[in-house]
Write a structure and sequence with these properties.
By secondary structure, this protein is mainly α. It is elongated and about 60 Å long. The N terminus is likely disordered.
Length: 201
């Protein structure tokens, strides 16, 4: 019988492909992270709920905290990569609003806080967070500010790296030390204050 090439080949019985298993593991870990926090993301619990062996998790992830980070990145993390439109102030306002909204979202806020807290006593996790979460976003923000500086929208002496710490760091401070709201109004105030200093006239 002639085979119809347009018809997808059927997968035989046996083990599911590793991509399918990894997807199930990440979704399970994300659910545990959301329900119980990072301290409850253990290899035992995730393996049991996902229906996989612990050895699979040991093979893929350095630690339960690394698994929690991968699950967060895969399922909940924003995809903010600031790009320049030519209007620094509009770009900053849009991106800081979105960043603040993502950090303060009820599902993601405790996850980010938990991951950052765990990183304080886990240097390898800190580097993983930097490599996969904070550094790519930081590089995009620095590029955005440098582009504005080159257009004359910021003084030539402005240190773009330090300015990222002041703006985006202020949002992290509101997340971890909630003495004020982390919302759109706060993001706007950060931009308005910077603009007033950069262009006092």
């Amino acid at each position: 019988m002639e085979r119809n090439d347009a018809e997808p080949a059927k997968r035989g019985r046996g083990r599911p492909p590793s991509a399918e298993v990894r997807r199930r593991v990440l979704e399970t870990a994300a659910a545990v992270l959301l329900e119980n926090g990072i301290s409850e993301v253990t290899f035992d619990k995730v393996a049991r709920r996902a229906g996989v062996s612990r050895m699979t998790l040991y093979k893929w992830f350095r630690s339960p905290a690394s698994l929690a980070l991968a699950a967060f990145e895969d399922t909940y993390a924003d995809s903010l990569r600031p790009e320049s439109s030519g209007d620094l102030w509009a770009d900053l306002r849009a991106h800081l609003r979105e960043f603040a909204a993502n950090l303060s979202e009820p599902r993601t806020a405790p996850m980010v806080a938990g991951l950052l807290g765990s990183a304080q006593h886990d240097p390898k996790l800190a580097e993983e967070i930097s490599a996969t979460y904070t550094r790519p976003r930081r590089e995009g923000a620095v590029a955005l500010l440098r582009a504005g500086r080159e257009r004359g929208q910021l003084p030539a002496a402005v240190d773009a790296e330090a300015l990222v710490d002041q703006l985006w760091g202020a949002c992290y401070a509101r997340l971890l030390l909630p003495e004020g709201k982390l919302d759109e109004a706060f993001a706007d105030a950060l931009v308005d204050n910077l603009r007033a200093l950069a262009d006092p006239g």
